[in-house]
Amino acid sequence: MLDSEQLEEAQERDGSTAEDRPDECDAAFERDYPAVGFGNGSPILDKKYDEYPSGDDILSPDASGVLETLAEHPLIGSVRDISDELRADVTVVSKALELHDVDRIEPVEDDAQPSESELELPDGTVVDTEQFRTPIYRDARLLEYLYVDCGYSIAEMREFLESERNHGRGAEKPRWTVDNTDIRTELEMVGLLIGDGDDGERDDIRLGGASLSESETSGTDGLTVSTSDF
């Protein structure tokens, strides 16, 4: 429950980091996600990079399972991706796929877009992003959770959202981005900051925003948000 005192504290921070916040909120910036590319993030295969087959080793019968696993992985969208992950020549990878009768991966248009189906919150809760407003940084529940519950600054909110939206994407692929000014404006719109963005139309009482409830202690309107709301 966000009471009047908590709201005042949030507004006084003016977008800066909270002094006290849960440890998992800091740990969220240290996540090591699987990513395409040898040595880039965590391995996609369930083994260490130094245990990967190398060079022409992928032509051997033992490498069939490795190629099948990579070809079916959601982060893999092309033969080039497999080549990058195994640090192998594209020609050799193509030959190995044919030799082991593994269906070639044909690039699709959606492969160039960041995954938008799920978001892992700092406490580990995985949320279906269909529950959020579009774009997600406009969702009042998410804004309050990150700014108040997690104690993130505006810059940290941007860093967290961009990291979560882009993990596993190759550097050559389009990135999901948001500006600090956009987040500040939305925080003002929901009343968590005071500024020009607060035009009197409180975003938190619209469809897709956080729920308003009566505070049992102060008798004033309080904003109730928890990960179970998502």
Automatic annotation (TrEMBL):
<feature type="compositionally biased region" description="Polar residues">
    <location>
        <begin position="212"/>
        <end position="230"/>
    </location>
</feature>
<feature type="region of interest" description="Disordered">
    <location>
        <begin position="1"/>
        <end position="49"/>
    </location>
</feature>
<feature type="compositionally biased region" description="Basic and acidic residues">
    <location>
        <begin position="10"/>
        <end position="20"/>
    </location>
</feature>
<feature type="region of interest" description="Disordered">
    <location>
        <begin position="194"/>
        <end position="230"/>
    </location>
</feature>
<protein>
    <submittedName>
        <fullName>Uncharacterized protein</fullName>
    </submittedName>
</protein>
